[in-house]
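My current task is to audit a protein record that another person submitted. Alongside the sequence sits a line of tokens, each denoting a local backbone shape. Please read both lines and tell me whether the tokens look consistent with the sequence. Do not assume that whoever made the record got everything right. Thanks in advance; the entry in question is below.
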Amino acid sequence: MRNEACVLAAFAAIWVVNPMQAAAQQWPDKNVRILVPFPPGGGTDIQARLLSTAFQKSTGQNFIIDNRTGASGLIAAQILVDSPPDGDTILFTSGSISVVATLRAKHMKFDVYKDLVPVSWVSSTPLVLVVHPSVPAKSVKELVALAKRAPTSLNAGGNTAGSTAHLSAEMFNQTVGIKSTVVTYRGGGPAVLALISGELDYAFVTAPSIIPHLRSGRARGLAVTSPERSSALPDLPTMHSMYPGFESGNWYAMFYPKGTPRAIVGRLNEEIRKALNTPELKAFFPREALDPIASSPEQLAALLNREIVKYANVIRLAKIPVE
């Protein structure tokens, strides 16, 4: 009887494992939905559509983009968390999730650490510290010196309230010991317009949005916020090289809901790696000042943790109201 019980237990274990293995081997066997927390046409949406096309060509299955905007990305994230963990619903979001985890904590009905399964850090783009041409500063050190001796505080810009650009401007104040007034707008576009019109003295903005104005001379770049120099702006130094630890920017990543079999997570991770090596995406990334990453799930988990801790500290020191 004991041997029979052991055999039955072994068969039970096989039945537990095999469906998961089979699901991974068959995935995707029906349409897959990619949730995007932002409107069509933005950087996250465009990348999602290029990735979905690559996935479709590779797997022969449809990957459908579902733009679910609102609540700083939390609506799409909540839909993911509430979805079956079968591999057929994916969240493709930006680094903003590491900010809203603190800034909108009271509105979150899920645990960002426990309910989101990291798949891969897909890509990253630096923010660029830029000044209006009328500002007499041609380096970050000169800008800091100017801010410290200015009779009134300089105006700094940072996209929408709670964005990584906004918090980078606050982090700059905290890091270098200045008191620039940080002004936020309804998006990156209005912030760039405010900078080139002279309404702002300097700003942290995304590389794709500012590169045309750097080329035309309507803005002057001083540094990038990525840990390494940007392939799109190789002449600009990193903030990290002057102020160790000063790193920010925008990153893009894919997540699954809690309970998704690890084998399926691995399959999607593999598809992401293949997609980033397609001619279409290889041409797209440098054109948009994006750097492909293709990380492991563990590397994405570590990134998310670092970013949440970093921005939570900035929010606390800047006394930004938590909603």
